[in-house]
Amino acid sequence: MPIGSGICLARIRPVDVFVNAIREWRFVVNCALFDLYGTTIDIQIDEDSPTLWRGLAAALGDSGRTVDAPDVRRRFQKLLEEEATHGREGFLMEPVFGRLLDSFGAGGDVGRIGKLFRELSLKEMRLRPYVEPLFGHLRRSGVKLGIVSNTEAVLSRFELDCYPIFKTVHTIVPSSDVGVRKPDPRIFRIALDQIGCTPATTVFIGNDWDADILGAKGAGLRAIYLNDRAAQGSAVVVVPGRSDIIEIAPTFDAINAALRLYGWCGRSSSG
Fold first, then answer.
1. Which of 17, 179, 252, 257 is most open to solvent, judged by the fewest CB atoms within 10 Å of its CB?
2. How many whole angstroms separate alpha carbon 169 and alpha carbon 246?
3. What pLDDT score does 87 carry?
4. Contact by Cβ (8 Å): 136, 22
């Protein structure tokens, strides 16, 4: 959906025509739910890396038997194709890793292999710079925090463990753990049940229009759309025809301004 042609409240004084709308938008913010990838973490992976397959071969052969890296890759791809024929997208990797271990008679921990797979395929990863100050300000103001992500937990546990900030959130809901994916409203409701909040007092912040924003709206939440193509700064844009959705650039100041427009009373500076 083309975004960016709405009303810029950071640049236009909200007189007359905007006053009632602003009053309508404001509500108590008790909970902020965030998407993971492209919202809090940026990640690039390379599953063609020879280092990945050599490392997996070493792990699968750690009982003393020799395991060939090309053989590991062939078996992995075959198992992935088989699971994909009768499984669902986003719910494949745990059974694939389990079957891969069994095929080599290795046994062991599926979670350990999943984390190793992610670590060895990783090219680049970074925590977005606004995450730590924003989470800190929200927590100190009494707002509960959660992560709701379309991800396979057996892989994403690696990056979640890399950043201590994720240990401070109240709940993390990977889709593979609960059997549903965004935009299904059930995944948002699961997070709210775990965190003890209601849709009426919750804002969802994400970068995917269909999965994050329309999904959150379908569950009754307010939404903040992070658009990497938006002009950098603190401008807040109300999506045309959707006064309950705000579009912003992914910066601390813009997220702060959008939350304050929705009624959050927090600090207005990242310093």
1. 17
2. 23
3. 75
4. no
Quick one: residue 209, left, alpha or beta (phi over 0 = left, psi -120 to 50 = alpha)?
alpha
In this structure, are residues 118 and 45 in contact, taking their beta carbons and an 8 Å threshold?
A: yes
Q: Which of 32, 209, 47 is nearest to 136 (CA)?
A: 32
Is 57 within 8 Å of 68 (Cβ atoms)? yes
Using CA of residue 8, residue 12, residue 15, residue 16, what is the dihedral sign? negative
To which residue do tokens 């745990």 refer?
A: 94
- Rounded to two decimals, the pTM is 0.86
Residue 185 near residue 218, CB atoms below 8 Å: yes
For residue 237, the model assigns a pLDDT of 73
Q: Which residue has the tokens 């007092």?
A: 201
**CB atoms inside a 10 Å sphere around CB 144:** 21
Which alpha helices (H) appear in the chain, and where do they start and end? 19-25, 50-60, 69-86, 93-103, 110-121, 131-140, 153-162, 175-178, 185-195, 215-218, 252-261
With 0-12 / 13-18 / 19 or more C-beta atoms within 10 angstroms meaning exposed / middle / buried, residue 87 is middle
pLDDT for position 62? 67
> Which parts of the chain sit beneath pLDDT 50?
1-23, 268-271
Cα–Cα distance between 248 and 207 in angstroms, integer?
A: 10
Residue where the block lists tokens 């997996």 = 56
pLDDT at residue 203, as a whole number? 96
